[in-house]
Design brief:
Blueprint (H helix, E strand, L loop, with lengths): L2 E2 L1 H8 L3 H11 L5 E2 L5 E4 H15 L4 H6 L2 H10 L7 H13 L3 H10 L2 H21 L7 H18 L10 E6 L6 H13 L3 E4 L10 H4 L4 E7 L9 H11 L4 E5 L13 E3 L3 H10 L1 H4 L3
Parallel strand pairs: 4-5, 4-6, 6-7, 7-8
Antiparallel strand pairs: 1-3, 2-3
Length: 294
């Protein structure tokens, strides 16, 4: 069975080692085990319980009361809890504890509680990053990444498809990604933000070569091309890539975001780089003129 160190618990639950020590010594909460070298570690079941306790703690439960509760009572209390929308730490623990159980119903319940526009960047994406970081260290989280990512993907697509249809828009944004599967959620979320703001879009997919998109992008109704570029999957030279795209479509505004844009050095008259989450959200809602001010 997978064992978790105190550092792992810090990363997954947001609870510092010193705080865990106090919980254990003073309240007999989150009691760790020790190996033959006296190093503390926690089992997978203990991790799940710490996530539940952390969720309740972030929601305002007092430690003496938590210490009097049994493990099944912690779980029952979490699922009876209606969290405030700005209680991001509690939502993270609740979402991750559900994902650790591979409980589709409960993960969907948590996702339904979270406001997608506000919660994606502050809750959902950070949890996925934590899971992926743990997977790289060969923790049990490796299998959770595709499980949770797929449910989040379905949630974003469902919310997007339920938005009212648009008619006779003055401009259309064609958007695509030049990255791998880990960037799909970011691109889908950006697409949702645009559609939710009432902007007409043409979603062209992920891991696409722009050279194959001429028939779509050359349409007169397309005024803006949005490309999401990930540093991890961009083997090409970023400036050369952007030059090719801007030169191929000189009468279109090219918008680029993603980790790779931070390495871009050259400027082009029809190119706008969005280097922050705030700039991306502003562009999605108001267009590139407002986004350039961020």
């Amino acid at each position: 069975m997978q064992k978790f160190t105190t550092r792992n618990i810090e990363d997954l639950c947001g609870i510092k080692a010193a705080t865990l020590y106090i919980w254990e010594r003073r309240y007999q909460l989150c009691v760790s085990e020790q190996n033959n070298r006296s190093h503390k570690y926690y089992s997978e079941e203990q991790l799940k319980n710490i996530l539940l306790i952390s969720c309740l703690y972030y929601a305002g439960f007092k430690l003496p009361a938590l210490a009097q509760m049994k493990s099944n009572e912690h779980e029952r209390a979490v699922w009876q809890l209606k969290l405030e929308c700005n209680n991001e730490d509690a939502f993270k623990c609740k979402l991750l504890s559900s994902a650790l159980d591979f409980n589709t119903q409960r993960v969907n319940e948590v996702l339904n509680e979270i406001d997608l526009e506000k919660g994606f960047l502050k809750v959902i994406y950070p949890v996925l990053q934590t899971v992926r970081a743990g997977a790289k260290r060969k923790l049990v989280l490796a299998a959770i990444d595709p499980f949770l990512s797929l449910l989040v993907e379905h949630k974003i697509i469902d919310k997007t498809e339920k938005l009212p249809p648009l008619f006779a828009a003055s401009e259309t944004v064609a958007l695509f990604g030049a990255g791998g599967t880990n960037d799909r959620l970011s691109l889908l979320f950006i697409h949702y933000l645009m559609r939710n703001a009432g902007r007409q879009t043409m979603y062209l997919g992920l891991n696409v070569k722009w050279q194959n998109l001429y028939p779509a992008i050359e349409k007169e109704v397309v005024t803006t091309v949005y490309v999401y570029l990930s540093e991890e999957v961009c083997s090409f030279e970023i400036d050369d890539y952007l030059e090719g795209l801007c030169t191929a479509f000189p009468h279109k505004t090219i918008i680029a975001s993603g980790a790779a844009v931070h390495a871009a050095q050259r400027l082009f008259t029809n190119l706008v780089l969005l280097k922050s989450d705030a700039a991306i959200k502003l562009f999605a809602k108001e267009g590139f003129t407002s986004a350039t001010r961020k």
